[in-house]
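COMPLEX REQUEST
Ligand: aspartic acid
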Amino acid sequence: MSPLFKLSIAAVAALVALGAQAQAFPAPGKTVTLIVPFAAGGPTDKVARDLAEALRKPLGGATVVIDNAAGAGSTIGAAKAFRAAPDGYTLLVTHIGMATTPALYRKLPYNVEEFEYLGLINEVPMVVVSKPGLPANNWTELKTWIGENKGKINLANAGLGAASHLCGLMLQQALATEMTTIAYKGTAPAMTDLMGGQVDIMCDQTTNTTSQIEGKKIKAFAVTTPKRITMPPVYKDLPTLQEVGMKGFDVSIWHGLYAPKGTPAAVVKALNEALQVALKDADFIKKEEALGAVVAHDDRVTPAGHKKFVTAEVAKWGAVIKAAGQYAD
Ligand code: ASP
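STATUS: Structure written out below.
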């Protein structure tokens, strides 16, 4: 064998080894950051923290940390993730805001279509709740109280484009009442003020309301889904908003996982595979179900299925928001 031939075999072998190394994701010792565009302790933060734990094993024991980049109805954190290095080490966990902000913000600092879609995580119903001292104990009494207090009611939300904003908007329309909106950086701080009686009403995910209702720290009146919620049991006696006369009222939120545009296909594949494993983690499923969330187990857990679903949601919510004539900027 000629020395030149021997050398080229060695060169090819070295290149193959280098390629394999470049493809190994995550590289040993690297940290994966999940950007959460809402405050710590809220619904999006909770799912992200539970997911971080479930992702650790399928990501080869990698450290997965949370970065709360809260504010402006999720757009600050989403913009941060959009501009991050497309190497798979900085990801975004966000909710329905991905589909509502394109219609609400005319100058959005990112394009939702340009993210890499890694998969849907869960779906979460919402519930109409109030401060503990509000003098109403069921939907009929709440409606009467709202009618008697027109112009004086405060409604908390997590910023323009957040699920609580949308739900509150639809509620005000259905009740033909305007409430004073108080925007927070997430519904965790909003919940603190609701429990303290500084705000009157909020519409939020069950993942943020279950233990507070169980502990009688807030009151609950109705759920936003077309069907009643039977689990956890604290919701089973609550009517749906449709039952109490709000025709077509159907708001369920969802969370998904995204990477910046340009993330290599092999990394997207590795992340999707890790997500698929994490979503089957018994502990993760148990934690989500205990708070009323349903973990995704369908085609939407694939990048293509996830993107198709979000694109349809952008169209659905865009029409609702335009009809309401709402803009954030
Ligand atoms: N629950 C919030 C919302 O209203 C978001 C959050 O704090 O996770 O969209």
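REMARKS: The chain has two domains: 23-124+253-324, 125-235. Residues 12 and 18 are 10 Å apart (CA to CA).
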